[in-house]
């Protein structure tokens, strides 16, 4: 049954990522700066602020709804909340297809943030609740499927965009958006047979002070990761288009190859994580988080196809390991009644950072470029910000937390 969640993760991420590839091209088209889709270089820097604003709008609605997603799930049931999110994905996807202005795209992008807040944290909490004995393994495959979607999504989007290049430009730039409602419909079909889960309400304040302290560190880490990730996400495609290539399939292949190799390197760890104790998993989380931020900073040095593939491979490997470990460790700290709430708050803190990050990153990128500097400095600043969260995690007393977990389980 948990494979349904893995498949859902793949379907939603691949169709969402496919449409993301089209956004810079669509923004250039709306500005009248796109005359053909296939070109070695395009003036992508003209729309860096618009693309960053779209990302921030998506994250703004996501942070608001994600914070309350656990409470929504308590009252409606987790499956119902999840299905509502998939329906909103469907509606927003159709809206994107028929958008004719930046403000219309902004509206539908914001609605996608609501959909995302109802789908991702609730799906993760269902996964942990329904399959407690294999939660780490299931979460790792779930995250790998998500990463795989974000790998092949740009390939799919780039292929669709390039295949549509012979169509009228007004039609061609919208073609990848068709994938969004298709993915939502497939997701709804996949979730139909999943059982409903409704837990009796439980309060976070019932947890011990030590565990609450650790959760606050996780929330802080989520916030700074959101800033760092938002800075990177808002400028990565622009950076590749400006310094390496603007050809859709070449751009997509950089993301695809690095993602696939990074994920494959992480696969052997999936079979071991459920056998590893809490303290060891926490330690691995800290180390992979540090590798993740170092790889982020190293993106500035990548000015060729091969070097960018190498750096992104390390980055994707660390992501594939750290993200599910984060959820696994958090779920050890709390009773199952609180997973939806805690995962929702974690998503909310991350998303709050992602509101700030894209705008800050895109404006900073434009400032660097306008002043004759390398736009890649954004990656260095983002990595340093992200390291703040890793240092905070490293300072948590894992032994005391382990004792708290044992006491909670025995009570």
Write the layout of secondary structure elements.
Layout: H1 2-30, H2 48-76, H3 78-97, H4 102-130, H5 135-163, H6 169-172, H7 179-191, H8 209-243, H9 248-270, H10 278-298, H11 305-333, H12 339-370, H13 377-394, H14 398-410
Write down the CATH class.
Answer: Mainly Alpha
For the secondary structure, the number of strands is: 0
Summarize the amount of helix as a percent range.
Answer: over 70%
Tell me, rounded to a whole number, the average pLDDT.
Answer: 86
Organism: Ignicoccus pacificus DSM 13166
Pfam families: MFS_1 (PF07690)
Domain Major facilitator superfamily (MFS) profile: 10-401
Subcellular location: Cell membrane
Q: Which features characterize this protein?
A:
411 residues; mainly alpha; 14 helices; 79% helix
Characterise this structure:
The protein has 411 residues and is mainly alpha-helical. The protein has one domain: MFS general substrate transporter like domains (Growth Hormone, Chain: A, Up-down Bundle), CATH 1.20.1250. It is 79% helix and 0% strand. The protein contains 14 helices and no strands. Helix 1 packs antiparallel against helix 7 and helix 2 runs antiparallel to helix 3. The two termini are 30 Å apart. The model has no long low-confidence stretch (mean pLDDT 86). One of its GO terms (molecular function) is transmembrane transporter activity. It is found in: Cell membrane. Its main location: membrane.
